[in-house]
Design goal:
mainly beta; single chain; 7-stranded antiparallel β-sheet; 5-stranded antiparallel β-sheet; disordered C terminus; Jelly Rolls; about 45% strand; about 180 residues
C-alpha cells in the first residue's frame, strides 16, 4: 500500500507497466489501482482493465471507456505483447457531497481513453492512499500464473506528470510529489 502524507481532493498518478509476453487477460480483469481509506465514501473505488474496456468503478457502478482495453492495447489480441505502457490516472473528489461531479481519467501512452466528470463518489473525504495492482485475473495459454512489472510510479497533487521520455504536460515539471511513501 502507498499512502500520501495528507489526504488530497485531487491526484494524478503515473506508472509504467508491462505483462509477460503471452499472458491472457480473463474476466473480470485486473484492478490497476485501488484507492484506500475514505476515498469514495469508504466503499472503495478503482481503475481496472478488461479485454475490451478501461473502467473506473465506485460503489459497484462502472464508468467504462468501451473504446480501448487489454485487447486493443496488445495489437488486437488477448495475448500480452510484453511491451511497456505508460498509464496516467486522474481522480478528483466531488465539490460537495452528492454533487455528482467527481472526475476519473485514464491515459495510455499519453492518449486519453477514459474521461468522466459526472461521478458520484459517495461522500468521499478525499484520496489518501492506494494499492497497486490490487487484483489479478489473468492466465496464460499453459494455465500458469505469470508476472507483471510496474515501475516508475509518480504521484502529483497539482497536475499531470507525463510519460517518461516525453515532454511534461504544460505547466508541469518532471518532479513528482515528494510526499509519497510505501507502507509495509
Amino acid at each position: 500500500m502507498y499512502s500520501i502524507s495528507t489526504v488530497s481532493q485531487e491526484l494524478w498518478l503515473r506508472l509504467m507497466s508491462r505483462w509477460e509476453p503471452g499472458l491472457i487477460m480473463t474476466s473480470p480483469g485486473q484492478k490497476m489501482i485501488y484507492w484506500t481509506g475514505k476515498a469514495c465514501g469508504g466503499h472503495g473505488c478503482y481503475f481496472d482493465i478488461y479485454q475490451g474496456s478501461l473502467r473506473f468503478v465506485t460503489s459497484g457502478i462502472p464508468y467504462s471507456s468501451n473504446l480501448f482495453g487489454w485487447t486493443a492495447m496488445h495489437g488486437g489480441k488477448n495475448l500480452s505483447n510484453g511491451k511497456w505502457f505508460c498509464h496516467e490516472f486522474h481522480v478528483k473528489n466531488e465539490t460537495s457531497p452528492g454533487a455528482k461531479n467527481g472526475v476519473a481519467q485514464w491515459w495510455v501512452d499519453a492518449i486519453p481513453y477514459l474521461n468522466f466528470n459526472n461521478i458520484d463518489l459517495q461522500n468521499s473525504t478525499g484520496f489518501g492512499g492506494f494499492l497497486l495492482p490490487s487484483n489479478h485475473h489473468y492466465t496464460t495459454v499453459d494455465g500458469k500464473g505469470r508476472w507483471q512489472d510496474i515501475d516508475d510510479v509518480a504521484v502529483s497533487k497539482d497536475g499531470r506528470i507525463g510519460c517518461l521520455g516525453s515532454t511534461p504536460p504544460p505547466g508541469r515539471n518532471s518532479r513528482a510529489d515528494e510526499n509519497l511513501k510505501a507502507v509495509p
